Amino acid sequence: MYKQELLDCHSRIKPHIHRTAVLTSGILNEMSGAELYFKCENFQRMGAYKIRGATNAIMLLPENDRKKGVVTHSSGNFAQALSLAAKNLGIQAHIVMPSNAPKVKRDAVEYYGGNIVLCRPTIDARISMADKIIKETGATFIHPSNDLNVIIGQGTAAKELLEDYPDLNFLIAPVGGGGLIAGSALAAYHFGKSCKVYGGEPFEADDAFRSFYSGKIETNMTTNTIADGLKTVLGDKTFPIIRKYVSDIFRVSEKEIIDAMYLIWERLKIVVEPSSAVAFAAILKEKKHFKNQKVGILISGGNVDLKKLPF
User: Fold this and answer.
1) β-strand pairing of 22-23 with 35-40
2) What pLDDT is attached to residue 94?
């Protein structure tokens, strides 16, 4: 299921994305007891993997719909991704952002050409404002994660990693709305060689872990995590894929996230955001599970406020 869609998507979006580097570290291998391959989507255009799904979703719109623009509600990486993807493809993106969104994120969206519309900082207000824009402009709504075309686009990062390292035993990704891990799981199923997929998630926003084991979509009890990109919940498109193709989800503490982030900065010499460190934190915590295995790690992004580092 979806193999041809992944192949077609990758061909479609290639002119608009970077094929990002894969880094390794002997020291991090020794510390984890595994052979690690870091897929660096922090080097991606706009600094995160989400440009892949945003580009694919826009390119699959009928021409008449594309001309009317696109809209989403996001205060994070997808706001920037959709803005840049729309700019690259010559259309307008309307981005509904909460009034308390950090200035650095608003500035980035504006830089990429997104039309920011502010709303009260609630989910209901976001949805209501997006609906208003759709009625006024005819723009098409694109969900940051719970959209099959977005999911397929995000899966191309894992597809590239498996093309470079086809004998990976495991693949691990952070889990927020589920777009990245769902797409990665589909890619691993079709392009890996018995490659199992795992997720990493903060204890402070562990809806995916609880959903995985309850069999129904759970909400977050708390979102008090430094991994700000992982505060969203699973949707009816991402959840079934995760349930079918993901082997397990591991939870990590805030300290474990910060320690893993520090190690990546220190040893790989790259800028990563806290959400990106969650997958590596899970490997360090579950060493016995990953011991002596070849493990691909999806570094989801590097959009971090350098004035607010946790170390």
Assistant:
1) antiparallel
2) 98
Pair 39, 171 in one domain? yes
Q: Which domain holds residue 178?
A: 3-47+147-308
Q: Could you give the CA distance from residue 51 to residue 54 in angstroms, rounded to a whole number?
A: 5
Span 237-278, pLDDT tens digits? 999 999 999 999 999 999 999 999 999 999 999 999 999 999
Q: What is the CATH number of the domain that holds 258?
A: 3.40.50.1100
pTM listed for this prediction: 0.96
3-state secondary structure of 22: strand
Q: Which residue reads 């805030």 in tokens?
A: 254
- Domain end, chosen from 141, 159, 190, is at 141
For the chain, what is the domain count? 2
Burial annotation 108-127 (CB, 10 A radius, 16+ → b, else e): bbeebebbbbebeeeeebbe
Residue environment code for 174-201, b if the CB has 16+ CB neighbours within 10 A, otherwise e: bbbbbbbbbbbbbbbbbbbeebbbbbbb
Query: What kind and span of H or E run contains 284?
Result: helix 274-285
